[in-house]
Write a structure and sequence with these properties.
CATH superfamily of the largest domain: Zn peptidases
Distance between the termini: 29 Å
Number of strands: 19
Strand content: 15-25%
Number of domains: 2
Oligomer: single chain
Shape: globular
Radius of gyration: 24 Å
Helix content: 25-40%
Number of helices: 15
CATH class of the largest domain: Alpha Beta
Length: 447
Amino acid sequence: MTELADSTIDLLQNLIRNACVNDGTVESGNELRSVDLLDSYLSGSGLDLQRYEPAPGRGSLVARIEGSDPSAPKLCLMGHTDVVPVNPDGWDNDPFGGEIIDGELWGRGAIDMLNLTSSMAVAFKNLADTGYTPRGDLIYFAVADEEAGGKWGAKWMLDNEPDAVMADYVLTEMGGFGFNHASGRSVIINVAEKGSGGARLTVKGTPGHGSMPFGADNALLKAAEVLRRLGGHRPMPQLDDLWTGLLDTLGVEGAARAALMDPEQVWDAAAAVGGLGGRLLHACSHMSISPNVAHGGQKLNVIPDSVSIDVDIRTLPGQDADYVRAELTEAIGDLADHVEIEMLSDQPSTRSPQDTPMWGVIERAVLAADPEARVHPGLIVGGTDARFYRPKGSVVYGAGIFSPDIDMTDFGSRFHGNNERIDLESLRLVTDFWDRIVRGLDEVAAP
């Protein structure tokens, strides 16, 4: 499918050049530029195309191929069109140039996730152009605002236009990258993601004159101690099947595996790994607590009576708001009576079952591209639009495929990082991948 891969490359270049940068404000993103591009690309194939614009410039596009069997499972291929901001000074090449250099296509979004958004569109159009009729409805969803929480994208669509995008299966980002290790090669397909929440800790003190600080009830000093305790707190690990799947994916064996499977040793074992690997191991086995914003004080010569600390919290499956509050209280210890805890947000962790026909379809599609690979389920420690679909009953996987030349280290450094780029072989493989997924699901859905 060299010709299709060329179409993916061209479409990806143009999506990158559209520079749909989402900084979190409603005025940013301007995804309508890419809606126009994708609408133009898909037009002429007899597709049902619908555009949605919940806020000026914040556009999403839905394309549909009607299935032949209303009872067959519906499949949605969902890719976002927005990208995160970039500092051009950190790049060796134009972050919005879409240039091909030494077999790699450079630009913001090349990995996250315009590579998938473009390849999904190309595979979708090819199916329509060749007259392919799936058993169940096939949906292509180019969605806005994923990078800033989905308010103007997936969340808005599911709240306001659910019939347009609901499906039994949804495939989206953060899967398909591989790990090479002594016992072979593993590819991860994500079935779950951590919950995202926030808490504001308001540390109370007593105001006074800054000229007499001795023995004062200074909220800022107490807040410093609260921060120290949060930084040193060790939540209980959760070493479940997703954790063992990650160790299998990484090829961890022997004494290292024993340490990482021991609740008493896993924290220090992850710390010993260090770097990105250690951070990943910690995030996949523990609820994370990250104090990221602090506010307090009124004037240089006034002892503060109140300091607030905003904490980013990522939870594992089964950990709800009550669990989070209990962990924070335990971490704060005997200062708890001086601290008010306000939960700012609570997006629970979500997970899809693995025992589905689609899982087998994905495994076969991965093996067609990478015959030596073993497929393992994974946990995303960040957030994707999957979290809006799973509570409504859809089975959602973070899927895709990358060439063996891209491993997790490459992926991690390029994801939201400088010099984001993707090799052309990965674009060829993933374009074929979506075609295999659609046809493979029809095979298992046949009566």
